[in-house]
Amino acid sequence: MITSPKNDKVRYVRALQSRRRVRQREQRFVFEGVRLVEEVVRAGVFPTFVFYTEVATSPESGAGNKRSGKLLASLRDMSVPCYAVSESVMAACSDTEAPQGILAVLPVPDLSRPAHPTFSLILDQVRDPGNLGTALRTALAAGVEQVLLSPGTVDASNPKVVRAAMGAHLRLPVAVLEWDAIAEAVTSCDVWLAAAGGETPYTAVDWTRPVVLIVGGEASGTGEQAQALAQGQVSIPIDAKVESLNMAVATAVILFEVVRQRTARGHSAA
Which residue of 85, 86, 140, 244 has the fewest C-beta atoms within 10 A of its own C-beta? Predict the structure, then answer.
């Protein structure tokens, strides 16, 4: 059992959790907690190694621990190196207030972006990790084919982003690109920008075409380059007493209008 916070692997996990530069250099990040590590196994991703506490994975300790123990057995069946650590070491490695007793270090998935995308999401200057993670989770649920992050957006491998995304990183291509590369990646698509004062109601757009939605952060909105790329701006009608919607909520509303239109088109064709 690893009990020292000075252990090399412990230092490595703590560096990945706290330092963006290390995550970028190593191209690795941390998935923490039973549900997220289960997503890793379901996605067929092989962690570099796993930390677990014996208390949290003991079948004799309750139903939740049986689930953790089954997960640990699956990881061992995959020949993933699994290391028992003390409760204090797990607490030192965790980014949560109540560690669940298991975490996995894994490579950042190298998922191919579509050559001819029909449904893309661009997030510009989104600085809140929870909002970014929620937007990624929603994008995956809505069938978005790629998410492009502009410079100035929070690091997608940030632990808080990873928790909020609930495994979206494993299945959804996410790329950080300069604006020239973003524009090239969405050539031949209609590009719409979500804005509180947008001239077009979001339900009036033909989302069945190859489309891109741009959403900005709550603090600063979208930048000039995002606005220049868009052919128009869409808005969500809200009560006058409310200034704006949460960024992740607004993203979900519009993305699922895309889903609604495309589903209806499919039903009509059938």
Answer: 244
CATH at 203: 3.40.1280.10
* Total of domains in the chain: 2
What does residue 185 show for φ and ψ, rounded to 5 degrees?
-70, -20
**pLDDT on residue 64:** 58
- The stretches in the chain having pLDDT less than 50 are 268-270
Residues 6+ apart with CB under 8 A from 3: 85, 86, 88, 89
Bridge partners for 233 per DSSP: 193
* 60 shares its domain with 166: no
Q: Are residues 100 and 131 in the same domain?
A: no
| Same domain (yes/no): 124, 251 | yes
Q: What is the pLDDT of residue 240?
A: 84
Within-domain flag for 113: no
- Angle (CA) 149-126-212 rounded to 5° is 50
What pTM does this model have?
Answer: 0.93
Same domain, 243 and 196: yes
pLDDT of residue 269: 43
What's residue 221's pLDDT? 79
Torsional sign, CA 58, 60, 61, 63 = positive
Q: Quick one: pLDDT at residue 63?
A: 57
